[in-house]
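Appendix B. Chain record.
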Amino acid sequence: MTTFTEGARSAEGLMYHIADYSLDPVTYSSGASIASMQVVKGTDAATVPAVAADTIGLYLAYKAYDATSAAVKGVAIKRHAVVNGNLIAYPSGATAPQKAAIDAALLAAGIVVRR
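Structure tokens predicted for this chain:
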């Protein structure tokens, strides 16, 4: 019998959202590789990965994007959604208190983090 291994799907951690409301188009700035469900920040025209100390203007990448060499148009989870906190790609080096602050910032934007 053949065994298939499935990789992570787009927004695998997205448990609930409202179509045409929770997701927005954004442009991921060049110079970064974005993981699915990664914490990001910025404007619709210039979205970048968040750092551990960020707590303002945070949202989540809908899927993985490769913006290492050029800016890439994509989608972000920005409001009224429920996500699996175990699948969030937090900033590198984020401590437990920083993750809690990020979760609170996401909640302020209407993104509920469940564990």
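Further analysis of this model is presented in Appendix C.
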